[in-house]
Amino acid sequence: MKKGIAVVFLLLLMACQQEKTKTVTIKEDVAFLSSDALEGRQTGSNGELKAAAYIAERFQNMGLKAQGTNTYFQTFSFRPKTDPHQAVNYTIKDGDSTITGTNVIGFIDHKAENTIIIGAHYDHLGLGAEGSLHRGETAIHNGADDNASGVAVLLNLAEKLKSVNTNNNYLFITFSR
Length: 177
Prior knowledge:
By secondary structure, the protein is an alpha+beta fold. It has a single domain (2-175), classed as Aminopeptidase. The protein is built from 4 helices and 5 strands. Strands 1, 2, 3, 4 and 5 form a 5-stranded mixed sheet that branches. α2 (26-33) crosses α4 (144-161). It is globular, with a radius of gyration of 21 Å.
């Protein structure tokens, strides 16, 4: 009887312990964000939304507070340029052809007087969208050397700043667009 109680107690104790979160490396973040599964993360695409969800989950697992307008997410709309020299129009009128992008925002609150803002953009050229120099058949523009690596470093920095330099708060924004 005592053995049975001891076994039940140990099982309950093990179940109550928090699962340790695995530390994600910069290389792993870059590998996911630049994977073909995200199809280049073009703003407004399913790949961009998958990347946003990944970043939000990383923020949450690190214990960053959600600071978007909808949990970690802040959406915005714009009308794409029709001329490469034209400015992007973020003022949307009813009936316009628009694209919706999603920024991801997390916050480390050390209850400090000052807040440092750290940002990187995670979207990319998708299958050869505006800004791409690629000609010919569509191809995934993975963006490992650009946007994915910048966001991976931002995520690594967020992990490190949770417990050091507590004289500042930190606002991390990953931008789409």
